[in-house]
Amino acid sequence: MQQAEELYRAQGRTAGAAIALVERLRLTPDPDPDLLAEQAEILTAAGLPRDAANAWLTSAAASRDRGDLASARARWARVPTIVNGDPVAALEAQARMDLLDGQHQRAAQWIASALQVVDQRAAVAAAPDLRQRISARRIRFEQLARQLNEHDAPHRQLDALLRGRPRRPRSPCPRPPPPSSCGRTGATWRGASPRRRRTRRRWCRCRRSSWRSSAPCAKPSGRPSPGRRPAPPMAWPMSPPQPAPR
Questions:
Q1: Is the pLDDT of residue 188 over 80?
Q2: Residue 8 half-sphere exposure toward CB, CA atoms < 13 A
Q3: Cα four-point dihedral sign 108, 110, 113, 115
Q4: Angle CA(142)–CA(86)–CA(68) in degrees, nearest 5?
Q5: What's the burial of 136, exposed, middle or buried (CB within 10 Å: 0-12/13-18/19+)?
Q6: What is the pLDDT of residues 143-163, one digit of tens each?
Q7: Could you tell me where the Pro residues compositional bias lies (predicted)?
Q8: What are phi and psi of 171, to 5 degrees?
Q9: What's the CA gap between 61 and 101, in Å, rounded?
Q10: Cα 197 from Cα 223, distance rounded (Å)
């Protein structure tokens, strides 16, 4: 690229030298955004809107990488104002500005429109270099969409957490805390105490001697209630032994 730039300058072709310089600076790890902006002005004055838009996008990306967001936004804003410019480059600049401002929904709309235009161009492109250029542009928009999803992921996670949060109790008083291990052990021992067992046994005896029971001794006639089977005799462990029938 440097040889091509020198050759173009020797021939007096400033536009060609500017294009070669932009491509050379793009391959460097830390390009100079001001130098790229100068080449973009030269290409705009030369009447090359596509190359000028490309240079403005590269200059804005370099400013963003250096942390100068104001200059990056100002250079992205120059792309849609280019007369007879590339619509895909204008859509990319709009998407990047909205992404910088936090307007994720509008950025997603710009990205979807740009991908639609790129797919329409890829459907009619026949030259291999043109198809390769279109594929590279599509990769850039896919990376931009992935960046948009990464920015939107924390908001979706927070929304999911808030939706899955349990509701607050209706009563103004707070709910009691769950019992500890000592409390659960005490409740178990209280349930198994002899007093609780005796109370349960007396309740069973009262239920069996009730007139609603289906036992033979429940009614004076000695017959069970109609539709109910007689309950089997219950032998309590502590009851005295029954005499054998004679």
A1: no
A2: 14
A3: negative
A4: 65
A5: exposed
A6: 888 887 776 666 666 665 666
A7: 171-180, 227-246
A8: -70, 145
A9: 15
A10: 31
- Comparing C-alpha atoms, which of 128, 64, 131, 134 is closest to residue 99? 64
Q: Is the pLDDT of residue 59 over 90?
A: yes
Sole residue written with tokens 């804003």:
77
Whose tokens are 């198994």? That residue is 192
The beta-carbon contacts of 170-175 under 8 Å, at least 24 apart in sequence, are none
Of 111, 32, 15, 37, the C-alpha closest to 66 is 32
Task: Quote the CA–CA distance of 161 and 79 in Å, as a whole number.
Answer: 40
Q: Of 7, 105, 62, which is closest to residue 76 (Cα–Cα)?
A: 62
Cα 147 off chain centre by = 13
DSSP state of 197: H
Start-to-end Cα distance in the chain: 124
Determine the Cα–Cα distance for residues 40 and 111; give it in Å rounded to an integer.
24
pLDDT at residue 235 above 70? Answer: no
